[in-house]
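Sharing a chain and its predicted structure for anyone who wants a worked example. Both blocks are below, sequence first, tokens second.
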Amino acid sequence: MDEINLLWHQLTDSETIIRSGLFVITCIVFAENGLFFAFFLPGDYLLFLTGVFGGTGVLKEPLTTILLSIFLAAVLGSLLGYLVGRFFGKSLQRRPDSLFFKKKHLDSTREFFEKYGFMALVISRFLPVVRTFTPILAGISHMTWYSFILLNIVGGAMWVGILVAGGYYMGQYFPWIINYVQYIIIFFLGITTFTLIKGYLKLRK
């Protein structure tokens, strides 16, 4: 049990992930964007804090390397989700609930997808959980390859560019911000929680 708790902490603690290096960060981003059982992994605040740690010099890679690595991880992760939905969508929809899969996430994402259409792929980049399931639903609905790839690239570029670059320059100009990592995480978690509760209540209504 202690080993499981330690693994869970390592997978969900952004500071631990970032200090593990850029390769680990990209693996987490890839999984969170495309694997339905990885929806719980950190997303928005992981990107922002990666930028902060890059700007303060904790991460040694230049900004362009950080941006490109995370962008590719996000785009390829979503592409994997799309392929899973396109080729295994029916079996996924029949899958029973488990610790790492909740059908309600698929249902709430479907409503979001129906509301915003193709642009859901761009907007959902900034919404946890929905971000993981939107490319899967795009595959299930057999969105054309051209439309998916275009919107996937646009959404990924906006998500990574805004959060990572924003965090990077915050770290450069306000290096003391690294001492308040926990408050940054709480801020993003507050936004995430509010978004999820609002979406859940709307879905129930």
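Comments welcome. The chain is about 75% helix and 0% strand.
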